[in-house]
């Protein structure tokens, strides 16, 4: 962890990803993987590498959000199918 | 006649803490209702309503003065209000009911909302809410509220355009067979839909920093009694049962067998 700024960014990212992981499929061990990946990068010093790691974290966050969106969309579409013969 | 003063718009978004969409619904052992000891979250239709209110403000900018969210529910509903505040609402009202009390019926909700609207010193111009809750699928609250208030209503909205100067809203509705466009004078009640033709919007994710900021936003606590509304249920649920289990289909070996099975089932293929 090079500077205070990146340290705060990394912590915020970790907290956000941890919160997102609560709704993930439990057998995947999202929290375990999250912790291990962060710990693997704990001793980075090069600014470029830190930036790359943080960007990867953001990418995972967006991917997870997209997965949740899709899951919800599919569920709701199944729950409320469009019947051309329905009254509503 | 004095012209009405140019007033900024106030939006009210009623939301409901309902059984989460992903939960597998089970009927309770007494057959009086469903098992409520499960995960709850904001009704997805109401999420769309909150998102639409925030987007209306993003489009109209200063013409919108406030977005207020309200919920009628047990203490845990405060979390749902927090999520709505994190999505962009400014303030919230929590009409608290005890944990043991039964879920209010649409008419009770509509009456409570009417009392709340009449209490707002600055008035309410747009009420936008989900078309139905995913746990009871009643789909009545918006319409009942419009009836009680005598306001215009546009249900199953798939597109909303507000014109604050002319005090109208152009709303596109999903109907069987396509879309219908209405021009409604403000104040108006809008219910949001999730249909296949056109999704109204994709609700934003409430990020952790926004949730933290939402903790500072004001939440007013009230009771139905304080609003002078009686929300005792008028309907009695006699029995709740699961739908009959699906009977599996059978395979047939050839066309003759198919015809024999159809005859057994009563399909003769002869004109009556």
Automatic annotation (TrEMBL), chain A:
GO biological process, one term: negative regulation of oxidative phosphorylation
Species assigned in the record: Suillus plorans
PANTHER family: ELECTRON TRANSFER FLAVOPROTEIN REGULATORY FACTOR 1 (PTHR21024:SF0), GROWTH HORMONE-INDUCIBLE SOLUBLE PROTEIN-RELATED (PTHR21024)
Domain Complex 1 LYR protein: 9-58
Protein name (database record): Complex 1 LYR protein domain-containing protein
GO CC annotation terms, alphabetical: mitochondrion
Membrane-spanning parts: none
Family label: Belongs to the complex I LYR family.
TrEMBL record, chain B:
Keyword hit for Mitochondrion: yes
InterPro entries assigned to the protein according to its UniProt record, in alphabetical order: ET-Flavoprotein_bsu_CS, ETF_a/b_N, ETF_b, ETF_beta_N, Rossmann-like_a/b/a_fold
Organism in which the protein naturally occurs: Suillus fuscotomentosus
Name this polypeptide is given: Probable electron transfer flavoprotein subunit beta
Coiled coil: none
Subcellular location: Mitochondrion matrix
Signal peptide interval: none
Gene Ontology biological process terms, A to Z: amino acid catabolic process; fatty acid beta-oxidation using acyl-CoA dehydrogenase
Classification of source organism: Eukaryota, Fungi, Dikarya, Basidiomycota, Agaricomycotina
PROSITE patterns in UniProt: ETF_BETA
Keywords annotated in UniProt: Electron transport, Mitochondrion, Transport
């Amino acid at each position: 962890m090079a500077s205070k700024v990146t340290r705060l960014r990394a912590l915020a990212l970790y907290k956000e990803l941890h919160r997102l992981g609560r709704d993930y499929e439990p057998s995947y061990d999202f929290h375990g993987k999250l912790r291990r990946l962060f710990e693997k990068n704990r001793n980075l010093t090069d600014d470029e590498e830190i930036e790359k790691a943080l960007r990867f974290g953001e990418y995972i966050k967006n991917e997870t959000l997209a997965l949740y969106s899709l899951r919800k969309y599919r569920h709701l579409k199944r729950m409320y199918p469009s019947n051309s013969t329905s009254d509503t | 006649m004095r012209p009405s003063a140019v007033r900024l718009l106030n939006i009210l978004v009623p939301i409901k803490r309902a059984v989460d969409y992903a939960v597998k619904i089970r009927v309770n052992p007494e057959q009086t209702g469903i098992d409520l000891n499960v995960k709850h979250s904001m009704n997805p239709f109401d999420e769309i309503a909150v998102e639409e209110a925030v987007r209306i403000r993003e489009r109209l900018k200063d013409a919108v003065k406030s977005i207020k969210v309200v919920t009628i529910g047990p203490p845990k509903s405060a979390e749902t209000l927090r999520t709505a505040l994190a999505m962009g609402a400014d303030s919230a009202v929590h009409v608290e009911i005890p944990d043991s009390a039964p879920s209010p019926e649409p008419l009770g909700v509509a009456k409570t909302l009417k009392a709340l609207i009449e209490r707002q010193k600055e008035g309410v111009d747009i009420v936008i809410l989900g078309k139905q809750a995913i746990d009871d699928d009643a789909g009545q609250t918006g319409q009942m509220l419009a009836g009680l208030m005598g306001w215009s209503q546009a249900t199953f909205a798939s597109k909303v355009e507000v014109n604050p100067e002319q005090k109208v809203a152009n709303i596109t509705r999903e109907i069987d067979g396509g879309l219908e466009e209405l021009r409604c004078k403000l104040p108006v009640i809008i219910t949001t839909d999730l249909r296949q033709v056109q999704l109204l919007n994709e609700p934003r994710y409430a990020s952790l920093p926004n949730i933290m900021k939402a903790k500072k936003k004001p939440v007013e606590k009230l009771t139905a009694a304080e609003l002078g509304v009686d929300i005792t249920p008028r309907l009695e649920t006699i029995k709740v049962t699961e739908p009959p289990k699906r009977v599996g289909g059978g395979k047939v070996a050839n066309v003759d067998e198919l015809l024999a099975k159809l005859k057994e089932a009563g399909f003769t293929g002869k004109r009556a």
